[in-house]
Every structure is written in structure tokens, then in C-alpha cells.
Amino acid sequence: MVGNASRAAIISDRRITGLSADVIAELVSELGPLWHERHQARLASRPRKRAIGAGAKHRLVFVDRLLAALVHLRHGVTHDVLACWFGVNRSTITRAVGEVRPLLAERGCTVSPGVRLRTLAEVIAHLGASGKTGIIDGTEIRVRRPAAGRKDRDRFISGKNKQNAVKTMVVTDGDGRVLFCSPTRPGSCADITHARQLGLVKLLADGPAVEILADAGYQGLGAQTGGRVVTPPHRKFKKNAPDWYEEMYERQRKAHSSRRIRVEHGIAHLKNWRALARHLGRREHMSDTVQAIASLLSHQQTADLMSARQT
């Protein structure tokens, strides 16, 4: 088990976990009881073979389990290295990360103290109530190539990057704050198809009047949502375009790009967590990993914003 001095060093240095000490303290107080409750429920769900209190004791308290998961997500540190750092077996770290990661993913994205968005419907409702503009974009995360012989092996090959990847749709506000990250889909899925599968068209068509900025990969959603999804202008002249049209087209395209650049900044902040730079673990865990990092990033962004307002 990691010593008190090492634990204090991890918590106090934001470069290690990407989170401030106050945010980590909030995570411990919020997730600790939930983890303990689920652990006890898991023990009670199977026949008891030993007396109450018997058996091996945890060598990692919940604080250390949370810190191990945070370091793994932030820097992509292998479980072997974390096991040496925390003085436990590698399987203990694997189990700890596997227990904490879903808890983080279920928290949703924090937009203000006590207000979290967990579904795309809640995001659209929040944007409608606040009158803010949303920005959507898809991003890809490289993953390990599926084993030979799998029927769905080619589904993970991205048509854009020609690499094995999974894709998630990111929603930010006009300031680049992360509001939502969708569960991942294989890399061969088009951005517009992913948005339709998430129900974005129905939510916008039946919901409040919200402006959503998107890139050319979502062209076609505007007509389906009554103009709520705004994409770059279509190019009417493919060859021999007049000079006046080229100038107008470039001006409109750059104006739209400058408005939606904030989502690229939000994605960049997500990719600062090395677990999303390139994932070397199981693809089945990618959805939880993406949503856990989005939860942590949005919580820290909200904490920084509140701190700046108080000063």
C-alpha cells in the first residue's frame, strides 16, 4: 500500500492526476460510499463459504484505488508500473481500475455545482434552457486490431485515418466546455450515422429551438432538424467557380469554422488524458473510459470556473 507521504504527493500535484486536491476530495466523499455499497452487495450476492470477517483484507483502501485509476487514465500508465508504485499485485490494480472506472463514467458531465448531464436528451434540454449554442464533432481513438478470424474485424477500420479505431461524439458549449461524450462505436461508422443512432435528429426536431454547430460530416442533419444543425455551406461550383463565389464561399466557411473551433479545443483537452491518445486495453472498456474522462474533465473545468469567479 502506498504510504501517506506518497499519497499526499499524488493529491497535491495536479500534474499527476490532472485534478486539483479539492476535486479529488469531492470524488472520494462521493464515490467512496457508493463503492463500499456495491462491494458489500457483490459479497452478499454469492453463497458465503467463510465466516463474517474472514478472508483476505483489502491492501488498497478506496482512496488509493481512486488515485490508481486517475493516474492510469491521465498518463496511460500500465498496471504493472502502478502495482510497483502502490506496492501491490498487478491483479489488484486491474481490479481497482475496473471497479472505479464505471463509477466515474456514471457521474455524467458537471455543468455547475450539483448539476450534471448524463444523456444527450439532458444536454439538449440544458442548451435550450440556457439559450447557449452547442457544438458537436466526432473524434477517433486508436485501439488494438481485433484478432484474425473475427467477423467484425473490418468494422474498426476508420475510413478517414485507415487505422483501427473507435469513435465517440463530443458535445461542447460555445466556450468549449465538455457537456457529453457518447458511448463508442466502431471506427467505420460515419459521424452522421452515429448522431442519428444516438437520437439527435428526434431530440432536436421535437425539442427546444437549439442551435447546434457541426462540420461537413453532418451535412444533411440541418434539413432533418428544421435548420437547428448548422453546417458549412455547400459548394455549388465544383469547377470553374467565379472569383466572387470563391471569395464568398471562403468567407462563409471561415466564419463557421471560427465558431465551431471550440469543440476542437474540448477534444484536445480530452486527448490530454493519455488513455484516449491510444488505447491498448480491451475495446469493451472504451465507452466507460471516454465517459469517465469526460466526467473528470468537466468537473475540473467547473471547479476552475467557480474559483475564477470567486477571485
Automatic annotation (TrEMBL):
Top-rank taxon, per record: Bacteria
Domain Transposase Helix-turn-helix, first and last residues per copy: 58-109
Cofactor (UniProt): a divalent metal cation
DDE Tnp4 domain: residues covered: 136-296
Membrane-crossing residue ranges in chain numbering: none
Keyword line: Metal-binding
Name recorded for this polypeptide: Transposase
